[in-house]
Write a structure and sequence with these properties.
- With 75 residues, this protein is mainly alpha-helical.
- It has one domain.
- Helices cover 79% and strands 0% of the residues.
- The chain is elongated.
- The mean pLDDT is 81.
Length: 75
């Protein structure tokens, strides 16, 4: 239980979390930056931001495919 309280009290901001998740999606991250994020970021914020980022990515792909198919370029 103390681990949950400790993780919830980490001072990482949403902007830092969004940057860390964006770098993770791209797959490029320095080891030093990763270690720094482990100490600062709230794990719950990382999970929520990751799920929202993945949903936005899928929605963007769906919209892109609909636009390409609707414009007649695809066939």
């Amino acid at each position: 239980m103390s681990e949950l309280r400790q993780a919830a009290s980490r001072p990482g901001s949403w902007l830092q979390t969004m940057r860390a998740v964006a770098w993770s999606f791209l797959g490029i991250r320095r080891s030093a930056g990763h270690q720094q994020d482990l100490g600062k970021l709230n794990p719950m914020h990382v999970v929520i931001t990751g799920v929202l980022g993945a949903a936005l990515f899928v929605a963007a792909l769906v919209l892109l495919v609909r636009w390409v198919v609707g414009s007649g370029v695809a066939g």
